[in-house]
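ARCHIVE RECORD
Type: protein–small molecule complex
Small molecule: inosinic acid
Source of inputs: curated submission
Record status: active
Notes field left blank by submitter.
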Amino acid sequence: MQLIMATGNQNKVREIREMLEGTSFTILSMKDAGIEADIDENGTTFEENAVIKAETIRDLTGQMVLADDSGLMIDAMDGAPGVYSSRFMGEDTDYTTKNRAILERLKDVPEEKRGARFVCAMALAFPEKDGVKPETQVFRGVFEGRIAYEIAGENGFGYDPIFYVPEEKMTSAEMSPEAKNRMSHRGKALQQVVAALKELKI
Ligand code: IMP
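STRUCTURE (tokenized, with ligand):
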């Protein structure tokens, strides 16, 4: 059974391929499937955006599609940057600049109010059958932490260098990729997707 991963990010494609090894699912990237689509992510929640992406590509291809949407929610910024995480301060602004701006904004915020979480929604859209589009399944993974006082770590990407993980006593950019994948929002959402796919028994 083929499953298209609605992302241009090859790391995400590789990760889900590894998790589905030994099952009957073949994971295709957008490139493998020959699709080029610029999807307007105009939802106001991670779930809405994931569903928009999954259903748009499903409608284009008639195949089963998995899409994800994720971001960082900071309590002291009322949940921002949230669904605007990659667009925060402009898509082309580098993350060192974005991360420094956040640290500056939170410089007087005490530890107990520095709560933050990475959230990942994944949507699994199914091909139309007998003229009916089955309901898209949605999953959510959350990675709890807080905003660090300084930038630390070279691994990961995006906001990882300012995301402090209390259990590990380090930022997610200091964690090994394997350790981060086990705890992360994406890892947790993906585990639920994999369980749901295995349940489909196709
Ligand atoms: P996407 O929806 O997976 O493309 O992620 C949107 C944005 O959220 C990214 O561009 C990052 O700014 C942020 N983000 C999501 N997941 C992570 C993560 O694991 N580490 C750091 N930043 C992340």
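CURATOR ANNOTATION: The two ends are 7 Å apart (CA to CA).
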